[in-house]
Amino acid sequence: xxxxxxxxxxxxxxxxxxxxxxxxxxxxxxxxxxxxxxxxxxxxxxxxxxxxxxxxxx
Length: 58
Fold this sequence. Notes:
69% helix, mainly alpha
């Protein structure tokens, strides 16, 4: 059970990162659960930081 939960949160973070890289708004977060939403937003913020630092081609 713990592995499944961790995988879902990892996937949420990854999807948020991809959304941030592609320039989508944080308002487009598809998750309603608090933990998953938090992970998605964390990935989104990380992507914005990477874009601003020039680590990702736009």
